Amino acid sequence: MKSCKIIIALLFISQITFAQSIISLINRADSFFDTMDKGKFEEAHTFFDESVKGKISPDELKLFWLRLGNSLGTYESVEGAQNKTQGEFYQVTLNCVFTKGSQGFTFIFNKSEKLVGFFVAQTAAEAAYVAPAYADTILYTEKEIQIKFAGGQMAGLLTTPTAGTNFPIVVLVHGSGPSDMDETVGPNRPFKDLAAGLAAKGIASIRYVKRSMIYPNSFTKTFTVKEEVLDDALAAIEIAKNTPGINKSQIFLMGHSLGGMLAPRIAALAPDLAGLILAAAPARKLSDLIAEQNKYLYVISGDTTAAMRKQFEDAANEIDRSRLLKLGDIKPDSVILSAPASYWIDINNYDQLASARKFSKKILVLQGENDFQVSVQDFNIWRAALATNRNSSFKLYPDLNHLLSSQKQKGNGMQYRIPANVSPKLIDDIALWIKGK
């Protein structure tokens, strides 16, 4: 569950071009952020085109701004710009300056200078990915694969060791939100690290682009984790089963964050799996974790003003709306925290602990103490729930964060902007567990 994910997907790209004043659009983007900085979220909502207003509410803008403020501080200005036409829309990428740092955002405007979307962008000044020492390309090869579904396909990579044969294989399943096959966050690529590290230990892997990254328009109405996660994970498992040189009795699933939460549910649909690896996996309801993150970021921000307190309380009220167990008077496509009611009802009625207890194969639970997104509390809940399961193992790492890299403190999302790699100790532990040592 990464912070500051895509807020609204880019919509309705066509082939008609138009001219637009870049200065006017920069000023428009600046005014939008300035309006939110003043706490005028109803007014900020009017910056959006009518076609997308229903996809994000003023309350969701409040929640977004609270999280952004907790991470980056008070908004100050914009500097620098990149721009290009996207059909009849105009894309402007700006470096937005805050008191604690800066962050790039891409704004999508239509002809009327109305917003149809905005999302976090990697700025040119952001640090680049640095390959870990254990990523020795001599030790593995990579082959492109395709994860197919009825509406299209996503690219993926099969990584296999160069030496030997009859390899165990791990299917990697992402956390929440759109993501590429490396699960890239800033300059960090945890899935790329895991694939290289495991290959060096004689273990193959499959990773793939998440469907919501390539087909965002498929997630604008009703959907559940079936479309977001389950179907494509099952397709990847099928590819693993039919890959030459793979030990078909040694197929494992590693879920990170939301992927770890859903791993037992995937396993119930894939009986051939030899084991599950739950990395930074929520043991509680997703709404509870979002509320905990919201409170944590509010507290560490140190902002005790009445305005910030109100923003925190408003965000907490919006989070409470996501605790749905049934529709009632709410329509299934009603948007709550950028997801439809159908999504929240599905995931809130899922009991990952009960599902894990029904899984008779090996389970490895991994958690870092410096993770502010999923806490040690979740790790302890997993350990208690699986205490009587002799096939379950648990590893708690004092220094690891949510991206499974070593950090000196828990911190906040700003640490995701600094290059860091998945811990070699964690990779060693996974490899030993897979090989039964």
Q: Specify the number of helices.
A: 14
Shape: globular
Q: How big a fraction of the residues is strand? A: 15-25%
Class by SSE composition: alpha/beta
Structural account:
This protein is an alpha/beta fold and 437 residues long. The protein has 2 domains: 1-126 and 286-322, Nuclear Transport Factor 2, Chain: A; 137-284 and 350-434, 3-Layer(aba) Sandwich (Rossmann fold). It has 14 helices and 14 strands. It has helices spanning 22-37, 41-45, 50-53, 58-72, 190-200, 211-214, 225-241, 258-268, 286-301, 306-320, 341-348, 352-358, 376-385, 424-434, and strands spanning 75-86, 89-98, 101-109, 115-121, 140-149, 152-161, 167-173, 204-208, 246-256, 275-279, 335-336, 339-340, 362-368, 392-397. An 8-stranded mixed beta sheet has the order 5-6-8-7-9-10-13-14, sandwiched between helices. Helix 9 (286-301) runs antiparallel to helix 10. Residues 1-20 have low confidence and may be disordered.
Mind sketching the topology for me?
Layout: H1 22-37, H2 41-45, H3 50-53, H4 58-72, E1 75-86, E2 89-98, E3 101-109, E4 115-121, E5 140-149, E6 152-161, E7 167-173, H5 190-200, E8 204-208, H6 211-214, H7 225-241, E9 246-256, H8 258-268, E10 275-279, H9 286-301, H10 306-320, E11 335-336, E12 339-340, H11 341-348, H12 352-358, E13 362-368, H13 376-385, E14 392-397, H14 424-434
Helix pairs in contact: 4-9, 4-10, 7-8, 8-12, 9-10
